[in-house]
């Protein structure tokens, strides 16, 4: 993809703070970290997001995210958020698939997502819809 910033990083056309690389994936520090050590794991090949990511590559990326999360724990994080934003509505800004690995610390004061409550009958309906779509 010509104008994709992560493709450019993957090809070495623009720099990144690399922490891991193999044939399929690359991991580097997020330029605007939520906490220090916040990393992104990307496939070297361009895929927009989880919807068009082949399963074998998705499996590889999660394996690397786990490896980096474990390293972050070893160097002192109390926890990690391993997450991926898919689509504009989910806050995706860079449309080259990536996994965030965010180190978390007790009392780091990052807020939780707000939650909703199910109304009568809504659980059954949503289960039906999801299972039919699977
Ligand atoms: P999102 O698409 O919402 O999952 O977020 C994209 C992430 O990429 C953001 O957290 C940005 O800070 C990060 N980002 C954007 N450009 C760069 C870059 N050149 N190097 C490292 N991280 C970047
Ligand atoms: Zn790309």
From TrEMBL:
Protein origin, superkingdom: Bacteria
InterPro entries assigned: HINT, Histidine_triad_CS, Histidine_triad_HIT, HIT-like, HIT-like_sf
Gene3D superfamilies assigned: HIT-like
Motif (Histidine triad motif) on chain: 96-100
Active-site residues, record numbering mapped to chain: 98 (tele-amp-histidine intermediate)
GO biological process: purine ribonucleotide metabolic process; sulfur compound metabolic process
HIT domain segment(s): 5-111
GO molecular function: adenylylsulfatase activity
Name listed for the protein in its UniProt record: Histidine triad (HIT) protein
Source organism of this protein record: Candidatus Nomurabacteria bacterium GW2011_GWB1_35_20
The organism's taxonomic lineage, starting at the top: Bacteria, Candidatus Nomuraibacteriota
